[in-house]
Amino acid sequence: MTTVRHSYVEETRTVVETADLVRRGELAAREAVAEALDRIGRLDPELGAFVHVDPDGALARAHEIDELVANGGDPGPLAGVPLGVKELHAVEGWPFAMGSVLHSGRTADHTSTLVERAVAAGGVPVGSTASPEFGRASFTASALHGVTRNPWNPALTPGGSSGGSAAAVAAGMVPMATGTDGAGSLRIPASYCGLVGFKGTYGRVPRGPRHWGTAENDHYGVLTRTVRDTARFLDCVCGADEYDRSSLPAPGEPFETRLASVGLRGLRVAWTPDLGNAPCDPEVAGVVGAVATRFVAAVGARRVEPALNIEDAAGVAFRTLSVPDVHAELRGVSSERLDDVHPTVRRYGEAAKALGAGALVDGHRARARLVAELARAFERFDLLLTPATQVPAFPAEGPMPTEIAGQRVDHWGALAVTFPFNLSGHPAVSVPAGTAGGAPVGLQIVGRRHEDLLVLAAAAVEAMSSTSG
User: The Amidase domain covers which part of the protein (predicted)?
Assistant: First the structure.
């Protein structure tokens, strides 16, 4: 077990607490933002969560909110809440390197829809949080920005690719920070940092206005400390977006107000540490499995066998369908400059040169088989529980694990319980489940497509029981 060197975790006001105080005029938005900026200044030199901070812009926005409240106005459900923005999400006028030396010095000329909507709801962006290059790793380190560290133990990674956002929230620098999830990049950092990381049904959070991905694996979302905070953020940013053809209409009623009204008693719940084909660290399986058992008993659910075995072709399909997205970032880059990018990213580029129509067809067919397998599985159960990652947090500098439970694995080995639900588009969340290897570890709760509320409600129950010990 890794020894904890020092904990930088700070308990601060939640999203809901901050916003409600600001709306009532009991807390100035400028005070909330100033506190966040102070914590960033104190803690971030050690943790490396932020790659850009905009104190002037944040304080000016907070001043606008305070004036609105003073004049009897309502800034919105996120009033005055400091917001970290993953550097893969554009904010007009801010640096937009996406963790890559290839884009060092680039400035965004637009703002991502979810950031725009969060600001419209009263949120205050304070800066950009770190990502590995183009978000293509489950630890957060890049040649451009250096290493991001876990607030629970700086020797360890906060996960990736939304590692900067997770570190910022876990350390109390901000109560919420945006993230992306293409293979587990919200859920894995949430797991390693003791947070809530929710990947909604594909299209639940819009990805406009200039999302050009072709793999249809990536989901946008947020990292917070509570399920209610996540629900409030979702209520502010969900809804159809003309710039995203996959975006879904907003739910008829807010997630936040319905969390406690969802009936969980009698649900059929399945637990698997490995989806039938993925090695899982015994300590992780033991810790998370105990929480899964406790959850079933706590809600009066009925445990059933998962009878799942995700075929290896799903992993091949994921890699194949992901290649064009990375190729789009590397297309036209000289071979000399390619030497500067991370080897994993380079391998994507090399794979793109050999990618043919047959491989793409095979990838889409494997995805269709996975969707069918999960559709049949969710006829047997209502919720599927797994670890949010099969390994404890590893060294902050990387590399990704090459062995799990005595079995050799490739780059995707630590993602085997998360990426299938990116391929299929199912809603999934990680909630704290205890510790393993000197850092937090999460329970993943997966539901049927479009049953986001059920997944959030189940997560809220487990988060409350985890908090109470």
Answer: 31-456
Q: Count of domains in the chain?
A: 1
- Percent of the chain, pLDDT > 90? 84
Query: Distance between alpha carbon 208 and the CA centroid of its chain, in Å?
Result: 17
The model's confidence at residue 338, banded by pLDDT at 50, 70 and 90, is confident
| Predicted pLDDT at 383 | 98
Name 404's bridge partners.
407
Q: What CATH number has the domain bearing residue 38?
A: 3.90.1300.10
Residue from 320, 314, 302, 303 nearest 276 by CA: 314
pTM of the predicted structure, to 2 decimals: 0.96
Secondary structure (DSSP) of 330-376 = HTT--HHHHTTS-HHHHHHHHHHHH--HHHHHHHHHHHHHHHHHHHH
**Could you list the active site residues?**
86, 161, 185
Residue 132 belongs to what domain range? 15-313+356-467
Q: Is there a contact between 197 and 220 (Cβ–Cβ < 8 Å)?
A: no
Could you tell me if residue 45 is inside a domain? yes
Whether residue 348 is contained in a domain is answered as no
- Site of tokens 């936040």: 256
